[in-house]
Design a protein that fits this description.
Elements: E1 2-6, E2 9-13, H1 19-25, E3 49-52, E4 59-60, E5 71-73, H2 77-91, H3 108-115, E6 132-133, E7 139-142, H4 151-159, E8 166-168, E9 175-177, H5 194-198, E10 204-206, H6 210-217, E11 223-228, H7 237-240, H8 249-259, E12 263-264, H9 267-288, E13 295-296, H10 301-310, H11 324-332, H12 335-340, E14 347-353, H13 357-361, E15 378-381, H14 382-392, H15 413-416, H16 423-437, E16 455-462, E17 465-473, H17 478-491, E18 499-503, H18 521-537, H19 547-557, H20 563-569
Parallel strand pairs: 1-5, 11-12, 11-14, 13-18, 14-15, 17-18
Antiparallel strand pairs: 1-2, 3-4, 3-5, 6-7, 7-10, 8-9, 16-17
Length: 581
């Protein structure tokens, strides 16, 4: 520990703590633009400059470790004027389109300009002439609004290990784009949306599909169905004025009906189906086909895209089970349509997801048309839903809680934890244990797969055998797990794991690319706590015990992995070179 002074206040912090972090300890806010707690300090914007007595140059607080007996000044007339000038220079290359920008009121540059009282242009406007890129259909890039902070590059290269974005050229011509100036669709981009979640301005945002949803809701010939992913219910409150992690499930059900949806379902029901199918798949491999182990989860479309591009050698280990919202979409246009005597051609399914890659998933293969129609018509993110609620004039805080429609809305505690890293693994093991032993676990909470370590490993004893599991979240952490699997296979050894869960986004879906801006590990932890609390509060915590799920299999599906289940709930994979785009 070292002791220093900031603005006359004594602070004691561990060696290696930056000036920025030390200032936060004593409630001093140093303005930043390029810094983000998820990412290494780049020190590119220069707004966080501070003075240190005895040092004749200004220091960048985000990357400079505070030293013993340092005496720091974070704000004086000169520092404030320099910061204002830096912001004015950034604005001179930024389009003045705040009123029509998706990030209006959530833009960090806009907020800084307001904080520093910048009311007029001080430098000639030099707006770059660069193309707009909406080629992926999941995220949209308007490089005119890029401020070269480097966050998206660090996210893509360091955190996700995808390398779809890079810095090109230098000086006034510097820009962020895929190498070779190709489109994002042509790049290695996996549409995870972490670049948009970390971008401080409107340079990278989700592709806006809300106009299509509004049009469907206003079409009297359509029966509009909505479903909500587990992670959305504990994140949307960040935008609507609630503390992070607040579970708003039943208020959201009420809001959906106010928006005009005819049926309100829950993606958690599809998660229960996924667990039954995937759990059955795992039990079969574990007990009868060990050469097919490990089984790797496949409910994250960004991870599936990454695997098909870079690791198609592990395709045989992928679970063939679709993601939960695709299962609900297929059931809405088959089982539900039949029960309610609706023409499936007129059923319009909207999925509310924490993820931008889900926008791509609904179009990716013929299996996503298992009902004979496009199973899910539109995906919108948590951020898009929040905008729709605000546009609709709904007084969300005053809504009375409502329930989902039971036919595809009932869920168990196992389903709701799908939204956090380790949750799929934990839910699947609950059902797999029952399938193998016929009994229930004494403790159904698997602490060793919880938390935010990049890779979590564990061993669970089941019926005299040990199930070895691994959980990885954030694509950058996946290589370690896959390399161990490939190395064991090369040596002819038993696999190091029997079951692997992968989520592309840090924290899992609670930190998805379509979630509210400003996410940190503290916020992720609050959202995770909201989901774990929902699990504990559920009367039923095993997916296979869901009464509505049992009725579905008895009346319509038959047995897990059966012919109808395979047709509606399962898919296949291919390599990137074979894609038909």
């Amino acid at each position: 520990m070292i002791t220093a002074r900031i603005n006359g206040i004594t602070v004691k912090v561990p060696v290696g703590t930056t000036i920025l972090e030390a200032a936060k300890r004593v409630q001093i806010k140093i303005p930043t633009l390029c810094a983000h707690p998820d990412l290494p300090a780049r020190a590119s914007c220069g707004i966080c400059i501070v003075k240190a007595k005895g040092i004749n140059k200004m220091l960048r607080a985000c990357c400079t470790p505070i030293e013993k007996d340092m005496d720091i000044i974070t704000h004086d007339a000169e520092i404030v004027e320099i910061r204002r000038t830096v912001i004015e220079l950034i604005l001179s290359k930024h389009p003045n389109e705040c009123l029509t920008c998706t990030r209006n009121h959530t833009c960090e540059l806009q907020q800084l300009a307001a904080d520093f009282g910048i009311l007029r242009e001080s430098f000639p406007q030099i707006e770059p002439k660069v193309p707009y890129d909406d080629s992926t259909g999941a995220i949209a890039v308007d490089r005119r609004k890029c401020i070269l902070c480097g966050r998206c590059v660090d996210v893509c290269q360091v955190m996700q290990n995808v390398w779809a974005l890079s810095f090109l050229d230098r000086g006034i011509d510097a820009r962020v784009a895929p190498a070779g100036e190709i489109t994002l669709e042509e790049s290695p981009c996996i549409r995870c949306g972490q670049c948009s979640a970390h971008c401080p301005t409107g340079a990278i945002v989700e592709h806006d599909d809300t106009p299509k949803v509004w049009a469907a809701l206003q079409n009297p010939e359509l029966h509009c169905v909505v479903q909500i992913a587990p992670a959305v219910r504990v994140a949307i409150g960040d935008i609507l004025g609630y503390p992070p992690g607040t579970n708003l499930t039943r208020k959201l059900y009420a809001a959906f009906r106010r928006l005009g949806f005819d049926s309100v379902f829950d993606t958690n029901f599809g998660a229960d189906v996924t667990i039954v199918e995937e759990g059955t798949e795992f039990v079969h491999r574990f007990t009868k086909a060990p050469e097919q182990l490990p089984l790797i989860t496949s409910c994250c479309p960004a991870w599936v895209d990454f695997m098909e591009k870079y690791h198609h050698d592990v395709v045989p280990h992928f679970s063939s089970c679709k993601s939960p919202h695709q299962i609900v979409g297929a059931l809405a246009k088959t089982f539900y349509a039949k029960k309610r005597r609706h023409d499936p051609e007129n059923i319009f399914v909207v999925s509310i997801m924490p993820c931008t890659a889900k926008k791509y998933e609904i179009t990716r293969s013929k299996e996503m048309y298992a009902s004979g129609y496009k199973d899910v018509d539109i995906v919108i993110t948590t951020r898009e839903l929040a905008r729709m609620i605000k546009q609709s004039g709904i007084d969300f805080n005053s809504l009375v809680d409502e329930d989902a429609d039971s036919i595809l809305g009932e869920y168990t505690g196992a389903a709701t934890i799908f939204g956090v890293t380790g949750g799929v693994m934990e839910a699947a093991l609950r059902t797999a244990y029952y399938a193998i032993t016929g009994g229930k676990l004494a403790n159904i909470e698997f602490e060793n797969v919880r938390g935010f370590d990049g890779v979590k490993e564990g061993a669970i004893p089941i019926h005299g055998k040990t199930v070895k599991v691994a959980v990885a979240h954030g694509i950058g952490n996946v290589e370690y797990v896959l390399n161990r699997v490939v190395e064991a296979k090369r040596k002819g050894e038993e696999p190091p794991y029997h079951f692997i869960e992968v989520m592309a986004c840090p924290g899992g879906c609670i930190g998805g690319g379509g979630q509210p801006y400003g996410v940190t590990n503290q916020i992720r932890a609050a959202r995770a706590a909201g989901l774990y609390s929902d699990d504990r509060d559920c009367a039923i915590r095993y997916s296979h015990e869901n009464p509505s799920l049992k009725a579905l299999y008895d009346e319509y599906i038959g047995k897990p992995l059966g012919e109808r289940a395979h047709h509606l709930f399962h898919t296949g994979y291919t390599t990137y070179s074979e894609y038909k785009r």
